[in-house]
Task: structure prediction
Amino acid sequence: MAMFLRGDRARAALAACAVGAALFACGDETPSEPETPVPAAEAPAQPPETPSPAPAAQPGPGAASAPAPSPAPPDAEAQLSLDELGARIKATPAIGTFSKLSLKNDIDDLVDDLRGYHEHGKGNLDELHQRYEALVLKLLTLLEDDEPELALALGRSRERIWNRLLDPVEFAKLAT
Amino acid sequence: MPRTSTLLFVSLLALAAGAEPTVPRDLLAVLTLKGKPCGSITSTDRKGESDYFVTCSDGHHYHVFIGPGDRVVVEDK
Result:
């Protein structure tokens, strides 16, 4: 057991690093993070959601103070950067060594195929998108029990991550 | 100073070890990720570092290990 922990600890670190590097490499690029207009554009998109629960709470003016805190958490989660998201997935104990490495393998394969799409026009974008969605679903499944907040944040960010993977400029920043 | 570092290292290792999913749970997650039927894992037999034989409640047996290129390999047995 001790050997497993020692040997797999290193592998876990490797896998976790790779998972973050591959899936969230766009976010790992520190320079790209500040210049992300996408999150900025999404941020305004979120607030409209917050007001809607508030009016729903208005029917009961006496309980107006109670609904106020509930809209706050979604905003906080929505503000998670890709860096934070990647770091939390790397650090989460909810996913074991084999699972992280298996996910890393799938992510590496997907990134390789996306590279082929960007550089040589190879592959079918719909098929790549389906594989990406399947990967995110696998991650969500692994996280939802032990890391529900992280799963929520990932779910909210998955479209943004995909859009960045589709952007040839952002994708080119991926470490090989 | 070295003693402090050792204590810190041991504490962190124990903390990390306790927080991780158990090996059977991790192996079951891998089988699920790979789309392998299993049910639940009834026993695991460790053959080496990151190398396990798994027996499932539905009668399936698998060899799960880390192969070349750091790829997780699942073989039906």
About this structure: Chain A touches chain B through 26 residues (CB under 8 Å).
